[in-house]
Please model this.
Amino acid sequence: MKKAQKLVLDRLLHPLRARTPWVRPVLPLVPEDPARATVAAELLHATAVLERRGQWHGEWADLNVQLPDEPQGVDAFLEECVARWQRCEPVVLQGCFSEVVEQAQEWLEDRELLRERLSEPGGLREWLFEQLDPETGFEPLQRARTLVDPERDIEKVRVAAGEHELWLKSACLSTYPDDASLRLRTSFGTEGEDDASRDIQRHRLVTELAQTLFPEAALVLEDPFLRALLNRATGMDVLATQHIAYWNAPQGGAQMHHDAFAEDAWNDGAFRQLGVCYVQFTGRTAWIAVSTDALCNAVREFAALLRAGAMPWVSQVVDQHMLSLVDDDERLRTELALPGCGALHALVERGPEFTNLLAERGHAFLLEAGDGILLPNRGLHSTCMHSVWCAGDEVAYSLSMALRPDRAAPHEDAKAVRRQRRLTRKDRS
Ligand SMILES: [Fe+2]
Model:
């Protein structure tokens, strides 16, 4: 084996690096990397330049490398996926939805045009009136809804579903002028307060509405492997709901966050949100996806490097107060669960240094059309955190769906639940 190839293999088999079988490994590419030329010439599947709203996070190499001792066969793959789910690690499903993408081709051709239509006020209403004829059982309503976030929200339209009311909302991902990213949420109730609602009847209506508008969503959930995996991992029938259609454009993406709610305090776990399923239909996205446990370890490792005098230019933005937080595990988890990762924002969002460390430790993935990722979740302090970039010049279209138990929750004290939700309000992104 050539010396440079061995260097790459040594990095991939590093004892501190997380292994994700059946998934192409990603390494950060830095200019001084002695293996850079070998990676580019012999092992490369693709590269990704990570830039989000003007902030550069580095460059990655997505590698065609088969590591030794990988388990073989579908059963072993299923077992591994279930184990990862239970540890709140990302379940990366590269190529699992290639057939879905093929079957959905006729709808996918219109999705970029749809993004353009939805980016203008009035575009969502017009599209819904075209799509939802009376036979669908859904009726768009005329009266406009007030926008919660006038800076980013574009339009919100109510939709009648029998005696119930649902809504769709188009929104920009940011106010950054060169970011053309857009998302379309389908949900019900009051934004924030009802995001973690356990109302299974309205969740099922949301599923039906989203699958009417985005038939590719139904194809995903019909996939036998995904169904078997979710059934094994959760032990229950799972409903995909609160769909978000995402168009991640160059400069777009999402900062490090989670999609969890503080439900464990008021929920026995049998009715809470279980996680999120994300499927890439066009384009490419780059991900850091990492369990809370592994993110805590990476933060501590990075803090130790800074304390030892490494990267003095980073120490200028990551102050001593921030570093002192990492010694208390509970405080660290609490901060990471806050919007923007709380007081640790500057450390966690530090690119390319911290992003590179996470990639070097095996938490980076590139998703292409036909790939998916499951982000399991057990509450605020144990979930799968993630950070996303558009990887390429093309706008990347995807669907994100919340996974919930497909069964009715027992009657609950509505006032107490509203109070809890106010404390834990969070907008999934
Ligand atoms: Fe998310």
Notes: Residues 3-70+292-353 form one domain.
